[in-house]
């Protein structure tokens, strides 16, 4: 039996139900998180749960559970489903009430759903590197919120997939922001450059982990917006995210990055990141 959680209750997935007037379903009115599971344990779980609370606050939603309660519920789910390597997905919506753009009354509780999934580490792609396309970032101006509204991201990712690519690198005019489902960094003359954490990007937990590793290992980095020109003349490009870890990007819009192979700075980060998850 595959277990899921709906509103705090652990259920068999086949009997779990959400109302058709749930605001997540109708408006995308909610927030979510994806947490990596390695060796049956959440990796950077607290950081993800804190971001979930922050995302909820930013959309003026109060979560009915504390981060400690959420953590223990997730642990229960992971152990019930005997998950070793994978992800736990969780989302809160603003609850179920007759469709109305105005928020429901305060007695309407948020809907909480969580499930686990087996997901292998993308070992082969991380070894070889992946291809990408460029796409205009057409999303709203609060990309710092991990909101259920992902249409802009989906349209870009679909375009990438149809071009046989793994990721779409998004840009607002000349400025590179992030990927459709990951953060983007470039390497120039040994320095890692990645967009600063502001309203134009999701401040990835993996991104933060990578920067923490850089600080500890004295690897130079700059948190600032970089341009499409800087991207095309970068020595290395990589994507980072919960499921993709540290992923070398070896091609952008058909043009090779550097010599077209994963570079030494990205390789070093991959090894240092691996040491963190083991
Ligand atoms: N995506 N930017 C965007 C737009 C993302 O969707 C993600 C993650 C990231 C990286 O964040 P983190 O390192 O915290 O996973 C950056 C998740 C995994 C998803 O939607 O599936």
TrEMBL record:
<dbReference type="InterPro" id="IPR043131">
    <property type="entry name" value="BCAT-like_N"/>
</dbReference>
<dbReference type="InterPro" id="IPR043132">
    <property type="entry name" value="BCAT-like_C"/>
</dbReference>
<dbReference type="GO" id="GO:0030170">
    <property type="term" value="F:pyridoxal phosphate binding"/>
</dbReference>
<dbReference type="InterPro" id="IPR005784">
    <property type="entry name" value="D_amino_transT"/>
</dbReference>
<dbReference type="GO" id="GO:0005829">
    <property type="term" value="C:cytosol"/>
</dbReference>
<dbReference type="InterPro" id="IPR001544">
    <property type="entry name" value="Aminotrans_IV"/>
</dbReference>
<dbReference type="InterPro" id="IPR036038">
    <property type="entry name" value="Aminotransferase-like"/>
</dbReference>
<dbReference type="Pfam" id="PF01063">
    <property type="entry name" value="Aminotran_4"/>
</dbReference>
<keyword id="KW-0032">Aminotransferase</keyword>
<dbReference type="GO" id="GO:0046394">
    <property type="term" value="P:carboxylic acid biosynthetic process"/>
</dbReference>
<dbReference type="GO" id="GO:0046416">
    <property type="term" value="P:D-amino acid metabolic process"/>
</dbReference>
<comment type="similarity">
    <text>Belongs to the class-IV pyridoxal-phosphate-dependent aminotransferase family.</text>
</comment>
<dbReference type="GO" id="GO:0008652">
    <property type="term" value="P:amino acid biosynthetic process"/>
</dbReference>
<keyword id="KW-0808">Transferase</keyword>
<comment type="subunit">
    <text>Homodimer.</text>
</comment>
<dbReference type="GO" id="GO:0047810">
    <property type="term" value="F:D-alanine-2-oxoglutarate aminotransferase activity"/>
</dbReference>
<keyword id="KW-0663">Pyridoxal phosphate</keyword>
<protein>
    <recommendedName>
        <fullName>D-alanine aminotransferase</fullName>
        <ecNumber>2.6.1.21</ecNumber>
    </recommendedName>
</protein>
<dbReference type="InterPro" id="IPR050571">
    <property type="entry name" value="Class-IV_PLP-Dep_Aminotrnsfr"/>
</dbReference>
